[in-house]
Amino acid sequence: MITERGILDLPSRNRELGLIGxxxxxxxxxxxxxxxxxxxxxxxSPLVAALLFAVAYFVAHAVVRVALPxxxxxxxxxxxxxxxxxxxxxxxxxxxxxxxxxxxxxLGLALFVGVxxxxxxxxxxxxxxxxxxxxxxVLLVLTITLGASVNGARLWIRIGxxxxxxxxxxxxxxxIFLAGYLRERxxxxxxxxxxxxxxxxxxxxxxxxxxxxxxxxxVLLVAMNDLGTSLxxxxxxxxxxxxxxxxxxxxxxxxxxxxxxxxxxxxxTSHVQSRIEGWLDPWAVEQTSGYQIAQSIYTIADGGVLGAxxxxxxxxxxxxxxxxxxxxxxxxxxxxxxxMGLVGAIAVVLLxxxxxxxxxxxxxxxxxxxxxxxxAGLATAVAFQVFVIVGGVIRxxxxxxxxxxxxxxxxxxxxxxxxIAGLLLCIxxxxxxxxxx
Amino acid sequence: MNRRISNxxxxxxxxxxxxxxxxxxxxxxxxGSLEARQAxxxxxxxxxxxxxxxxxxxxxxxLAESKPGKLxxxxxxxxxxxxxxxxxxxxxxxxxxxxxxxxxxxxxPELSGSTGDLAGIQNAFDRMKGDTVRGDDVILRLSAAGxxxxxxxxxxxxxxxxxxxxxxxxxxxxxxxxxPTYNPNTGLEQALSDPASPLLNRATQGLYPPGSTxxxxxxxxxxxxxxxxxxxxxxxxxxxQTGGQDLCNFRNHAYGPHxxxxxxxxxINTTFAKVGLTLGQEKLEATMKDFGFFKRxxxxxxxxxxxxxxxxxxxxxxxxxxxxxxxxRLAIGQERLLxxxxxMAEVAVAVANGGQIVAPQPVQEVRAPDGSVVRRPQPxxxxxxxxxxxxxxxxxxxxxxxxxxxxxxxNVAGLDVAGKTGTAETGRDGKNxxxxxxxxxxxxxxxxxxxxxENTDGTGGDIAAPIAASVLRALTEPAS
Lengths: 437, 480
Prior knowledge:
The structure holds two protein chains of two kinds.
Chain A: H1 11-37, H2 46-67, H3 75-93, H4 95-118, H5 123-126, H6 129-146, E1 148-150, E2 153-159, E3 162-164, H7 166-190, E4 194-196, E5 199-201, H8 204-224, H9 227-245, H10 248-268, H11 270-280, H12 291-303, H13 332-365, H14 369-393, H15 411-434
Antiparallel strand pairs in A: 1-2, 2-3, 4-5
Helix pairs in contact in A: 1-2, 1-3, 2-4, 3-4, 3-13, 4-15, 6-7, 7-9, 7-14, 7-15, 8-9, 8-10, 9-10, 9-14, 10-11, 12-13, 13-14, 13-15, 14-15
Chain B: H1 2-29, H2 31-35, H3 41-48, E1 50-51, E2 55-56, E3 62-71, E4 74-80, H4 88-91, E5 94-95, E6 99-100, H5 102-106, H6 108-111, H7 118-129, E7 133-134, E8 137-140, H8 144-156, E9 161-166, E10 173-179, H9 188-192, H10 202-205, H11 215-224, E11 233-236, E12 239-242, E13 245-248, E14 255-259, H12 260-265, H13 269-279, H14 281-291, E15 310-311, H15 327-330, E16 337-338, H16 341-352, E17 356-358, E18 363-367, E19 373-375, E20 381-384, H17 388-404, E21 418-425, E22 432-440, E23 447-456, H18 460-476
Parallel strand pairs in B: 1-7, 2-8
Antiparallel strand pairs in B: 2-3, 3-4, 5-6, 8-18, 9-10, 9-23, 11-14, 12-13, 15-16, 17-20, 18-19, 21-22, 22-23
Helix pairs in contact in B: 8-18, 11-13, 11-14
């Protein structure tokens, strides 16, 4: 197709390039603002970092231009703005952490490029569905067996000096498996073979892998001691089953089983219990289990409508550590709401809504079941993760340890999310090839 | 499938909009109530951004200042008190956890630059921008030398007590000492729970039976109301009967026939009891009111730290004027009469100042950060407690007290001291509250004072009068 149209004559790609340019401007301005606000403390030039950011994104864009000329033009710029906001706020917390995050971003973009090249034809991925499913299970089993407990939840494994959160990658592998599996079996799952009490039930041998999945999620919940990750996996699976079969009954039954399991977990584990306690009335336990959430809300409220400004909020205490523990990972949204205000916080949530919209749009325009399920599943994964972690830090939901995609500090999270972006672009290339934007 | 994907997008949109709704709630609606929460340390940090003005004595000793430090890239200030416990109760504290007290509290608008005038409004904008706000500096009338002497004397006796010295013509507060003291830099938390109550400003919050020092008030009232004349003659029995009980002289001493003046100089209870009965409760209490009893002195200090003096019932509440009391006992400073050292210093001010009383004035001037004078308080006269003639009479009698009466220990070489002793029995193990009030130099007074030592074996003349002498010496000596 490149032979038919010049490489510079691609409306989608030119739009993407322009938007990435905008994101680069935001990054440069943000870094400069933090540097100005905190000039007496840092010496390294933020412009170098901004330049590196720009080069990395322009390279990623160039690869997309060649490999996926008709892909969605908005996904990559949205990730650029989100990553930039994350980098700026992490830089503001600690230049050292920002340097690490910069490296994760480069690795993430490298993975993005790898995905784009490897799965230019997304159907190749469908053949790997059982491999992906098996790999997901292996990763999760590894997490449970070798996992180290951080902050009460068992989500991490240590390899050498590196801490890896396999759940972030297992999540993607699970979506790939489900997309492949459900496309294959959706007819038999949707059409019940028997009726019990007037309710249609599919054949056990078709439903078994799904029931197994439910079981695994619940086991994960107890084993990882984390409500958030298991809920995320569960909701992704239920959403994809709903799209594949259109049967709300499965969704309802699945949620019911999960709710019972969650209730049991609350009774059994003190970690989940204290999280619930801190959610219901953080002010009563402000110095203990409600501390993080109370500090998070104070930090958010302090930002007001317009925010304190990049680098001008009160985030660190006199010892130089963050007032809210884990501000750079779980509570990055609180820091954003403080320094960028309500305006900035709304902008960030709308960026995710925009990203989800592109994901679901790619799903609707795609012409094969696997692509549709995969795109919708990935969009759900990102959007629901945002809902759970942001809901946690603003006390809409009990707090759970999830990362804010592209924004939170963390190598696993950043690289995994760039893989999601790569997959979405691959799907949209195939979808748009026949019907260009 | 597309219809279901659209449905899922609708659910996603609702979920993400819920996040926006909740964030808006915290940042817009709940913001004010969250800021008001005690546990919200962010507000405390906001206060830290203020470069609070310093507090210094008239002789240039800094009592409180703000030291800059760093917090999350911004400059913050911590309050330090270079002289430690020297005037800890008067100056008070400005503390993140304990709040504010003393002058730190009453002068807070000026010290923190949050006054209602144009400069205060400018500062409010600076605060919103996150810029450092610089408060005004305060220079007190306090004499560090006199304050140090008072603290040294009280601490030498390991006594709980207080010394107040005022300039009688302007009300300028030259000394306000209270022991035990504490170090506001390091000892505040401990002081809060110390049973010896080092945080209590005994000069303004300590209530003690004034004993014979109150005879100055009785004498002023009796002379002004012509219930007695100075040379009126009285017999000198050791005890008289009043209210069905014996009322006796100190150590049951009997005197020969004497005039009223002699009774004041030698503090003869029986004579003053008789004069009190002649005078009557109504007239005596009217005079007390003129001296400032029964209400808080209006001055630059937190009202809750300035207790009114007067007659208290058994539950410790101030009784109304017309409540019947044994006026014979009231006339000699008993009958549940309690007074603060500040009140008794005001009694001395009245005599020294020709009958006029004047409000205590701790502040000499308030200076803006650029050094210009913002405020230089003028004396606040609170009315006349006695006629000029009566004041002149009492001035001579009080000089006699120091020359050859109960207060000879207050003598200072080269300085005519006038005064009145008081030894109030506490009713516990023969212990007394020892008083000495007075002024110097007798003819043109520059210092009017009250000294109180709690719970001591000695008398006002033995214990309190020498402290007054030391403080007066320190005040009159040229700075070394």
